[in-house]
Amino acid sequence: MHEMVKGGNVGLTSLSEDVGSVMMSLSWGSPTGEGDADVSVLLLTADGKVRSDGDFYFYNNPVAADGSVQLLGKAPTADGSEDRITFDLTAIPAGVEQIVVAASRYESARFSELQDLRLTLADGSGESLLRFSIDDPGEVSALLFGEFYRRGGDWKFRAIGQGYESGLAGVATDFGVDIDDDAGTENTSDGEGDTESDTDVRTREAVSAIPAQPSSPAAESVPEAEAKAGVEAAPRPARPRTAKKKVTLPKVAKKSLAENDSWRSAGLFPASALKSDHERETRATSVLLSVMAQVPEFGRRLTAAFGAPVGRMETFTEVTLPNGESPRRPDGVIRVERAGKLWTALVETKTNGNPLKLDQVQAYADIAARRGYEAVITLSNDVELEGSPLVEVKLDGRRKHKVALWHLSWAEVAHQAQLLIRHEGVGNAAHAWLLQELLHYLQHENSGCHGFQNMGRSWVPVRNAIDAETLCQGDPRAVEVVESWERLVRQVCLRLGGELGEKVLPVQRAKRGTDPASRRDALADRLCVDGRLDAELRIEGTPGVLALCADLRTGKLRTSIEIAAPDQGYPLTWAKRLVRRLAEAPADLHVETLLEGQTGGPRGTLERLRPEPADILPKNGAQITGFRLSLFRGMGNTRGTAESGFIRSVDESVDRFHASVVVHLDGRAARAARRPVDA
Predict the structure, then answer these.
(1) What's the burial of 293, exposed, middle or buried (CB within 10 Å: 0-12/13-18/19+)?
(2) Using the 8-state DSSP alphabet, how is residue 31 labeled?
(3) Which end of the chain is more exposed for a tag (fewer CB within 10 A), N or C?
(4) Per residue in 288-328, pLDDT tens?
(5) Sequence-separated (6 or more) residues with CB below 8 Å from residue 107
(6) Which residues contact 651 (CB under 8 A, 6 or more apart)?
């Protein structure tokens, strides 16, 4: 991998022959796991300015109409998370000479509070090409990481590392984006004194008011499309939002015309008649690939991360490929055409709990290499972990042509479909309906596409050994349980993120560069000693990290969140305000006061604190640093998703805690200021 230094540049073709489509990742970390930033991309002409405001891509305008730029959002990594951006450099308009990549923080946050800031670039096969680390970003709220620029018909990359004290609005203005200074003038307050600054509100709302480009020339306006689809138009937001020409489904379904609940709506993709795993795999592959081909936004969303270009997509099933005396039949094939060139991926699908077979995937990788195909994509209910591939495929290094091996879980498919139809929108009502039918199929009890559903064969023996105090450090079964736990947590993040339309990611506090296997070994040793599985989830727009603890000794699940004490005011005012905000929370919610330099403070249930909020205050006048809110419930006994299953108990615990506790806490208006309202 080529290591970049500030100001350095390199030609992309000198690093790889497969740089028509590249993926850039921006990553950073923080001691608390809560630090975050937003990425943005600007397309510039030779004079260093955008051609129009539509050349500015950010959280409210994440995808270029021609597919040349796509912000994919965040993905979990072994030591945190990273923001990913794909660039189809062959599709960049001729008038664009530079592509600047930046990131910005909001409110009063600064990049100096983050650590391990890093940019990496990979080619179309997923092979890492270069890395640029920024060691001292300074007290700035925006940062230019790097830029692509044309030279002699080829693209080069330059490492920049320049900070902006003026934030995202300053970056946009410097490059010619028109920011309306009058967009949004009111404060954002919770009504009880916690107010975001006027400057922050105006800046973020002004940037949010920049109009996005339609996904296609034929895209309808929201009112027109909703009227044609018979969708009741949602009220317009009071403050300016991105003018997205997209359609989302209504959050509240229309009243059914069925006589009773036994009447089932007709579905485009029936699943009730499926009897065997082969039928499920065949049907699931055909359903998914057909929807990908018919809904461009969805097909592009799933394939962009795999290095596919933007172009005309066709998908196929029941394809026979020669392979000596034994022809092979992959479950599906995806082909994308752009400028006369073809990108091809073979698809291998598994449903239910069936694992991927090494010999099958290896054969498809060999065939793809011989035929010049670009990728092999595996689909199953399993969730792949970094450093722990589901299948270890060997690729012949003597072959010039590289084949990328990618994995996609059914949970990720459902997550992306839900984001599009519930939150981000698609080109027209027919596309939204197709995605909804796909979701109905995936969620059908007989589809076999329900995501990670089994904690594995080591789950029950490990629980029994912990109960009997016979589980020893170094036991490989404990590592298997830790891996299953990590897969479950990542799936919980996907599901919750799809429902909320927010970024939900697992927090890893391991030092950057830590080997994933070593990290899991250490967690397994802790499991043997403490009998607990711990995880943290960062949900955008919430004031803290949601912590999840499964205590295998007591059989209890604990969901909790810590919120910091306000900077101003009196402790009694803080306690009263907290109790008021939690008026709709469960009575059995545990509230604990966190004290400076002490391990435990006053605590009690919300039921007891409602009449006497002062009971949560320390009697000795110790300094309050914050409050911890917790809910407890019993966890399932079995390893799966049955009514008594552990996985279901985790899902229900997270859902209940978020819906009854987290949503009532102050998110500092970040969610309202940053997200468009489409539905």
Answers:
(1) middle
(2) T
(3) N
(4) 999 999 999 999 999 988 888 888 999 999 899 988 788 88
(5) 196, 197, 200, 668, 670
(6) 492, 495
